[in-house]
Amino acid sequence: MSTTKQPWHLVRRSPLHGNGVFAARDIPAGTRIIEYTGARITPEQADERHPANPNDPFHTFYFSLSCGKVIDGGDRGNDARWINHSCAPNCETAENPSGTRVYITALRNIDQGEELFYDYGLVMEGKITKKLRAQYLCLCGHDVCRGTMLALPEKKAAAKKKAKAGKKTVAEAISTPDEETATPREKASSGKKKDKKKDGKKKGKGKKKADKKNDKLAQK
């Protein structure tokens, strides 16, 4: 008798956008579904690598950790990078106590076949303009949709303070101070990432930050 456990998730095309991650079986609330993995790099290296695709500078798989490192899910990353964003998520991201690893966990009971989402809550330094909101457009279509994957002003302080899972941060605007062209450094991917999931790029997926409480970028 096999003792191998069936994975909690599977990847397939999402009706929302590009690739998505779905529950392969019923998932109880609080379940640690998958770890967000990829190459561990420094913020400086993240800046040097960005943008992976000059034609789509708002697409990254970065997830910044409280330990100071950044996970580049586009470099040796796993299925977690395909999880899409939603303003009404059923998952969240959370770091381990040392802030060196981040996991996607279930916020509630999730039925088999449901797509998994977490709120990217990207944090951008400076004023959130209409142009920036449009560049990080959210397509979740939920009643509580705020229209963007960015964390709005009233949520920015809390998102930065907690560095919690499920909150992706567009990190300190990469090198360029121009708010209209600044690129995301942070993961806190899956508002929708562009249909370039296959080539390792998610829309609006900057560096995400993990939640100390769990131990989540959605669109492609």
From TrEMBL:
Keyword Transferase recorded: yes
Compartment list: Chromosome
Keyword Transferase tagged: yes
Boundaries of every SET domain copy: 7-121
GO biological process entries: methylation
GO cellular component assignments: chromosome
Name of a matching Pfam family: SET
Single Gene Ontology MF annotation: methyltransferase activity
Biased composition annotated in UniProt, kind: Basic residues: 190-211
Origin: domain of life: Bacteria
Location of the region described as Disordered in the Swiss-Prot/TrEMBL record: 162-220
Keywords assigned by UniProt, alphabetized: Chromosome, Methyltransferase, S-adenosyl-L-methionine, Transferase
PANTHER family referenced in this protein's UniProt entry, alphabetically: SET DOMAIN PROTEINS
Protein name per the record: SET domain-containing protein
Organism listed in the record: Pusillimonas noertemannii
